[in-house]
Amino acid sequence: MARFWHRKPWRIGRLCFRWFRIDAWPVEADGERVGVVGHSWDITDSPEARLTMTLVVRNYQEVLAAVRADELRFRALAENSADLVYETDTRGVCVWVSPSVAQVLGWTPEEIVGRSMPDLVHPDDIAEAARRRQEAVESGLDSGRLEMRYLTKAGSWRWMNALSRPMRDGT
Predict the structure, then answer these.
(1) Buried-most residue among 7, 21, 146, 162 (CB within 10 A)?
(2) Cβ-based neighbour number of residue 135 at 10 Å
(3) Taking a C-beta distance cutoff of 8 angstroms, is the pair 87, 95 a contact?
(4) Are 12 and 18 in contact (CB under 8 A)?
(5) 106-120 burial by CB neighbour count: b if 16+ within 10 A, else e?
(6) Cβ-count burial of 151 within 10 angstroms (0-12 exposed, 13-18 middle, 19+ buried)?
């Protein structure tokens, strides 16, 4: 008779885990499996579970540190780039813009965040920009380069080469 033995962490709350050992045996009748009998018990306080949890936490901390380093590297690149980089929500409202917006369009980042980016696109360019953005969202690919005009703080229009790329959670 085969025996199944498994250790599984169960999350309780945000960061609290309990480890359980689960033993299970198949129940057979006339050569066919008709069920399973088993039991489980909390092994959280066992040395083996403590060691496993220590390794899990250490791995989590290493991954978190790597993510933070990547974020800092991205921010340094974006904040020191001469290119205008911005992020919008699904409605097209700006949630982040690089400081270069001041040199490129004359606006401060604080003046752009919270605004609808289509409000800054020339009326003649909005339809094509919206079509390309929608295609990018649906396909998951970038929109391809599009030349369009953006409104400067001084009220003039500046031709820019734009590229939209949808970002999914975690990308």
Answers:
(1) 162
(2) 15
(3) yes
(4) yes
(5) ebebeebbeeebbeb
(6) middle
For residue 129, is pLDDT > 80? Answer: yes
Pairwise CA distance, residues 118 & 128, whole Å: 11
**Three-state DSSP class for residue 89:** coil
How many Cβ atoms from other residues are within 10 Å of residue 77's Cβ? Answer: 12
What is the C-alpha to C-alpha distance for residues 121 and 132, in angstroms, rounded to an integer?
Answer: 14
Mode of pairing for the β-strands spanning 16-29 and 94-97: unpaired
Distance of CA 69 to the CA centre of its chain: 15
Please indicate whether residue 93 or residue 24 has the higher confidence score (pLDDT).
93
Of residues 158 and 140, more confidently modeled: 158
Q: Record the tokens describing residue 133, joined without a space.
A: 């953005």
Indicate if the alpha-carbon torsion angle 73, 75, 81, 87 is positive or negative: positive
Q: What is the pLDDT of residues 83-119, one digit of tens each?
A: 888 888 878 899 999 999 999 999 999 999 999 988 9
Higher pLDDT, 20 or 10: 20
Least confident of 2-6, 24-28, 41-45, 88-92: 2-6
- DSSP 3-state assignment of 121? strand
